[in-house]
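Sequence and structure are no longer studied apart. As an example, we show below a sequence and the tokens encoding its fold:
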Amino acid sequence: MSITNKITVKRAEIVVAVILALCSIALMIKSAENRITWNAEENMGAGFLPFYLSLGMLICTVLTIIKFVLKRSPQSKDDTPFIDAVAFKFIAVTIISLVVLVLAIGYLGIYFSLIFFLAFYLRYFSEKSIAFITIFAITTPILTFLFFEWMLKIPLPQGISEPLFYPVYDFMYGGFSFAVKMIFIILTIFLPTALVLLISKFIK
């Protein structure tokens, strides 16, 4: 019996429900380390939304487990395979590539890791052209950087690639005018696309 036949709908339901219940409990414990109250004097605590959203998820998963034990849901009686062999292959590749992405972020940083991940993922799962994949893989981390580090001022992990961003930070927080910064953003977003299209035209 193959592994896809062993993973039935019934087994998948209870395994996912238990995992989500454990994750909910862990999130509630972590959220409780911050203030989870909400009153007029102190407003909403930092842990309020995560705690009660996790509590809601825990209640739903507990109800799912109870229905499974009592055989009240159609899934709790379904012994058919949860996924076929082709779908299992795609899921396995996705999980492995995500694990590699997470590990790479700690070393290369999120932006360069994201480039390699998107390029591999799109190349493996889609029939898009090399030019499209290259443009998407490069532009997405650039937009991510501009959104988090420029607009929200939230730094993301950069690993060994951090020194490469020092000139960008100097420009971001330097005494340049708003117009110059907007021109820089536009060039940063569209220049890679123009270069890829130009190179692909000459290669053809």
